[in-house]
Each structure stands twice: as C-alpha cells, then as structure tokens.
Amino acid sequence: MRVSNLFGKTLRDVPSDADTASHQLLLRAGMIHQVAAGVYAYLPLAWRVHKKIENIIREELDKIGGQELLMPTLQPHELWEKSGRDVAFGQALFTFDDRRERKMVLAPTHEEVVTELARYNIQSYRDLPMMLYHIQTKFRDEPRPRGGLVRVREFAMKDLYSFDVDVDGLDASYEKALQAYKNIYSRCGLDFIVVEADSGAIGGKGSHEFMVIAETGEDEIIFCSKCDYAANEEKAVSIKPRAASDEPLPYQEVATPGAKTIEEVVSFLEIRKKQTLKAVFYIADGQFVFVTIRGDLDVNEIKLKNVLKCADLRLATDDEVKAAGVVAGSASLIGLKGIKSVADDSITLGTNFVVGANKPDYHLKNANYPRDFEVDLVTDIALARPKQSCIKCGGKLKSVRGIEVGHVFKLGTVYSQRSGAYYLDSDGNQNPVVMGCYGIGVGRLLAAAIEQNHDDRGIVWPVPIAPYQVYLCALNMDRSDEVVQAADRIYGELQEAGVEVLFDDRNESPGIKFNDADLLGIPLRLLVSTKSLQNGGLEVKARGDKESELVSIETAVDSVKALIDKFYNR
RNA sequence: CGGGGUGUGGCGCAGUUGGCUAGCGCGCAUGCUUUGGGAGCAUGAGGUCGCCGGUUCGAGUCCGGCCACCCCGACCA
C-alpha cells in the first residue's frame, strides 16, 4: 500500500475527547473514527490489525478442535425472556420492534442461540464433546462507554462454546480453552495474567478473566505477593484481620451526640474502626436489606448481589431507610424484627463491638453476635483490600489495575436445562449437556495492545498484529531518479516476497515521514534516500531501536525477512 | 441516574462590557523555493458559532428549554 493512497490521515494535535493512550493514538494515527458514544468506525489500518487478531484467534481455536460458525445478532426477544436474561441484562439490552411489532433484540452475546443449536444438533454422547465459536458484532447499551475502544456499545467479540457429557469433560475443555487463550495473548504480544472472576450476568460456577496490566484499566486486581493467587476485586477474598476478642461484656448504651459515620463514632469514643459494626442499607429487587459489616471493612456489592440472588441491587435512599423504620447513623440489628438481614462474617471475628442503639445520638457498647442479635445470613460479603492476607498462603495482598481482554466461564447445565439441550448417554439416560463459554473482545484487545505497547512518539505494534510489517520511507523522490528506482524496486520485491509493506511515497519532508512512521508504529522502517544510496544501500531500523543499520539493495529483502522472522520468534 | 466539564471549518483553540464582512495555529488547494526528525513565502477554499425559543434596533456573546460528547461515580462483561 502506498501512503499516498491510504485512507486515513494522521493528526498532529491530540483530539480533546481522548484521555487514554490507546484512544489518543488510534485517533491520531487515523485508525478509528467515532460515530456515536461507544460506536466507532475502523479505518483500513485498524481493520487490518483487527483481522490479524481474529486470525490468530481462529488458528488457536481451530487447533483445539473449535469449529467456526456464524450466529445472528438479530434475535427475537422471546428467546431472552425464556432464559430470563432480559432481566439480567436490563437496560444494557438493545431492543426494538420490527414492522410486525414483534419485539427484537440486538444480541449482547449468544448463549441462548448456541444452546438452541445444541438442542437440535446434539442428541447423543457420540456427538460430544463439541466446541463451537464465532466472531460476531455484539451490542450492549453500556451505561457509560469509555476509553475509546476499551468500552464500547457495538463491538466484535469472539465467543467459544464447549459442550460436554459431564463436569470432567467440561474441566478438560476449559483447560484446553485456557491454553488456547494463553497462546492467543502471547502471540498478540501481550503481558497478561489470569485471575479468578465473578461470572456476572452470564452465570455459571467457575470463571476466570484474562487481564492486561494497564494503569488505565477499569478493573482492580487483587493478587498475592507470595503465591499465584490473583482475583478480580469483585471476586477476591482475603483473611480479614481479627479484632479484639475479650470476654463478652454486658452491653451498655452510650451517648454519641452528632456521631453518625463510623469515622465520627470512632473518634468520639476513641476506639479503632474494627471494634465497630457498621450498617449499610440496600434495595434488592425492591426489598429492603439490612447489611452489617465490621467498621474497618467495606461491602463488596457483587458478592452481596450473588448472596441475595437478586437481579438488581442498589443503596437504599434516605426515605426508604426511614420507611423501613431504621435510624440511619445509629442503626443495628439489636431489637429489630421483620427486616431481611445479611452480615459479613467479620462480625464473628471479634467481640464487644460498638453498634447503633436504634435511637438518634446513641450507640451500644459490647454488642456480641450471636448473643445480642440475629442475622438471616452470615457469610463473606467484604471487599478484599491490599495489605490484607492471602487466603491461600497468608502472604501480603497487593493490587494493580487491568483491562479485561477475555473472560471464561464454566456454565454447567444452566442453559442446557433451561432450553432442553439434552443428550442420551450410553445407558440410554437423558442428561443435560454441560457447557462452557469463553469470550474475547477483539477491539478491546487491540486497544489493550496499544496501552501496553507505545512510547511518547506513538504506537509500537507487536509484529504479529502490526497493520504492516515494514514502513518503506523514500526521501528526495522528486529530485532523485535513483531513489525512485531503488524504492520502487524494493517495494516490488518485498511484496513479491510476501512482506506487508507500507510505502511512504509522499512528497513530504523527512520529519513528517519519520514522525508518521513512529506514530503508526510499524515494526521495521526501511529508508531510501540519496544519502543512504551513497552509503551503499538502505537503512533498516526497528521501531523500538534508536540506531539504524545499512543493508545493500540486493540483500535488503532477505535482511528484512530475517528480521521479521526473528521478531516472530521472540 | 447523581456530580463535573465541553460544544465556534477536518483537528487544536481565541472571541472583551451584546456592535460592523467571526478570528488564530495545524491541516487542505495552487504556485515558487526547500528537503535526514513535523520547512518558507504567496494566493486561496472551507463556518446553519450543537438545536429550539426568548430578550434586543442588533445575539457566538444575555435568558430559558432541549440535545450531543467527555470525565468521576452508580451500573455494567
């Protein structure tokens, strides 16, 4: 491709809408164009990268026996009512009526359809195991798109689905998929870690996310500094510090004028946070829930949501708290009846806590569970934090931010049972197919690759996903026939040799060409100029390097191919 | 949905107490000169000032409403 013909212009100024490196660079490189919030057009350079990533995915999934198919994105709403996920996705689901006033959805994912397919095409254990995948545009009406391609409303996603006879089969398929994923990210030149994850609206039992470490990432990862434990903050568990555990004392009311928050109570009574229990109020699918957790910890709302098995969870408003008969700022479960309650197990790690007295400006000292109050459910609903201890090895926990570039789930039989995807085993018994699903956001992966591979001059593409392998830069073309001839010759020879080359044939000053080459991040820059020809040939420079190397015209193509091979084998 | 911010040519911005044909830089077009890290000169094209309404002799500027986009949070894979 000649740069003079390339669709897409580079920008000198940083568009003001863009905050993150990948967003800024994609815009400046002329690779994407925003059409609406979270909706982007991919220009030729970006689309080449996208296709390369897709193909790496295809190769790795084909290798583990995946079969590619295509499923519709336009789906009847009925299908989503059947699975109950119209509620689970809520507002994120794009819906509309067709001309017959039949309610339709633009699918956010494809478990429903693939399970239907399984129902019709998998009848016997002989048909299993099976792995299907597709790469398709998916739609999710995100509350807040952000970060360029990181979080969008329309995006290409690769989804792989596995079907097995039993849980052992699922585990084997899951392992295969995990390995394929590791290969995919490695080939894309990404540093990633695998973390334990919550399964969210997809459902299922086991779940892992693939995270690309990046400061701009949306997710917080809690990991152990000693062992291999790593989990999304949404899911992470920790050993909670113990509070003082003296002999339980009789409880006693104390005046705490004006002290409502934990901070105020703690400083008024001159005690430590972990000697208090705090009350937090939620509305879970319309029902008021009284949540208790030790004062030094915070509620993990994902865990709470899972424990309550509700679709919608939010903090209660002041009015709702009042209506429930609870005294905000001085609330505890002591003496309260008829309110649904959940507590974090931290309330058992200590004694003689300070809690609300259920009347304004008073608290109770020496509250003890279960002596003084009852809770419907006591379990772990706390947010794990850095500096706490690892549940696996006791090591110190740390945290980093990451971009979620892949998510895998052990679905089990949830979907197959719902839609009747059963098979006959060798004894003639009907069993639900055991499923797994495995997703990769292609565009997000592209963005993550830039977040992780750029410098102050521009993108530094990993070779396997670079839009082109070589940037052929010719200077002085309008004044030197020699340069034109040499550049044309090399351009032709590279193409014949199967090298992907972008030929900067523009009549621009050297600075512009060098800067564009750096901005676009093409791995190898090949320079032809009167000077280089005088010196005996062309200059080759890797994007990440400072120094260039002189090669003769005759050996240029071989040298370039050798360098590219070297990069691939890195 | 809550908080904050921004809408003026393709991009980045300026525009005073309301006042005349709405400016600047980059980019774009043409010509000449230039050419190893974003060249110079000259000429030129390109704008319903986000939209609607109001106030006024007169609105980019003041008032009201709406919309879009960005950031933080909520929520979300």
What share of the residues does DSSP label as strand, in percent? Answer: 25-35%
The residue ranges in which pLDDT falls below 50 over 5 or more consecutive positions are none
Number of domains: 3
Quick one: CATH class of the largest domain?
Answer: Alpha Beta
The 3D shape can be described as: globular
Count of alpha/pi helices: 15
- By CATH, the topology of the largest domain is BirA Bifunctional Protein, domain 2
Structural category: alpha+beta
Q: Level of helix content?
A: 25-40%
Total E-strand runs: 31
CATH H-level name of the largest domain... which superfamily?
A: Bira Bifunctional Protein, Domain 2
Q: Tell me the radius of gyration.
A: 29 Å
Architecture per CATH nomenclature, i.e. the level-2 architecture of the largest domain: 2-Layer Sandwich
The first-to-last residue Cα distance is 27 Å
Largest sheet: 9 strands, mixed
Q: Overall mean pLDDT score?
A: 92
What does this structure look like?
- The protein has 570 residues and is an alpha+beta fold.
- It folds into three domains: 3-66 and 108-233 and 399-451, BirA Bifunctional Protein, domain 2 (2-Layer Sandwich), CATH 3.30.930.10; 252-379, Alpha-Beta Complex (YbaK protein), CATH 3.90.960.10; 468-568, 3-Layer(aba) Sandwich (Rossmann fold), CATH 3.40.50.
- 28% of the residues lie in helices and 28% in strands.
- The strands form eight sheets. Strands 3, 7, 8, 9, 10, 11, 12, 21 and 24 form a nine-stranded mixed β-sheet that branches. Strands 16-14-15-17-20 form a five-stranded mixed β-sheet.
- Helix 2 packs across helix 11 (442-452).
- The mean pLDDT is 92.
- The structure holds one RNA strand of 77 nucleotides.
